[in-house]
Amino acid sequence: MIHLKLSLACVVLMTNYLNASIPIVMNTWNFTQATQKVWSVMEQGSLSALDAVTIGCTACEEYQCDHTVGYGGSPDENGETTLDAMIFDGATMNMGAVGGLRRIKNVISVARLVLEQTKHSFLVGDSATEFAKNFNFKEESLSTNYSTDLWKKWQANRCQPNFWQNVYPDPTTSCGPYKLIDLPNDIPMKEEWKFFASDNHDTIGMIAIDENGNIVAGTSTNGANHKIPGRVGDSPIPGAGAYADNEVGAAVATGDGDIMMRFLPSFLAVEEMRRGATPTKAAKVAINRIVKKYPDFFGAVLVSTRKGEFGAACNGMDSFPFSVASKNLDGVVLKTVDCSSSIY
Fold first, then answer.
1. pTM recorded for the entire structure
2. Which residue in 26, 186, 240, 330 has a CA-CA distance of 20 to 30 Å to 253?
């Protein structure tokens, strides 16, 4: 795991790698094992983009990447790990997503079932679990010794930190259950505080472009540590966690999902490229749209054109790593974006 020092209001402009080619696969963070798992097959030209994203996200779920993807990480306030995922097909503009999936490990595969076996786009919670069981997915606990210990330490620390505000008892010093308190109309709501960082982000976001030029973007995550049960972040939201269009390219996002989903950064980045922006500029526009309202938010966007040219931008950290594999790059490489203090 790469540890990144936190800095406020950092935005980056990175060089476009114009010599990139297809097929190509890339993903957020230093999850190179997942990238390699895909590329070992994809470089032979025999893997569709849909299969590539499914294989890559599944690998991260099995490897429990940074304990932010897959089972055994990020317990909610009840100590349970739940999962979110999405897969978005840029050829058909169709998608499948699941949110708050309980007791099923292979969340990206369930999302793909929603894409291919239903006319819906998004299933959630226990009903998504029943849907998965109908296709013979095994129902099992997603907790591990690691996630249980994490939850117990959080409880012993008076449930700090948590995601509550304007309730009683004081959520900054006490555990719940919490009750609503009446606030005078002239007293503003408390400012949102920073919780996400390089050791508490979430999500693998992956983009794959196969030899036929088909583009797929996908995500998989176990969400935010100690989230309020029922919370779903940006990862399975189309245009927020991921977006793809064969005519243009794709983008994936990672970071503070509660903020990022309000701005649809993946959709915005793709639309900026449709208007002629480079992937770097598109990523920077998407990040800066958020920075204007939340200057110290934590997050990053990874963007690719339909030809495999890529760029990224980030905020709230010193640097952002991502993994890329293509023949022109001679296999899997880890790229790191340095975040600057300039605001576009």
1. 0.90
2. 330
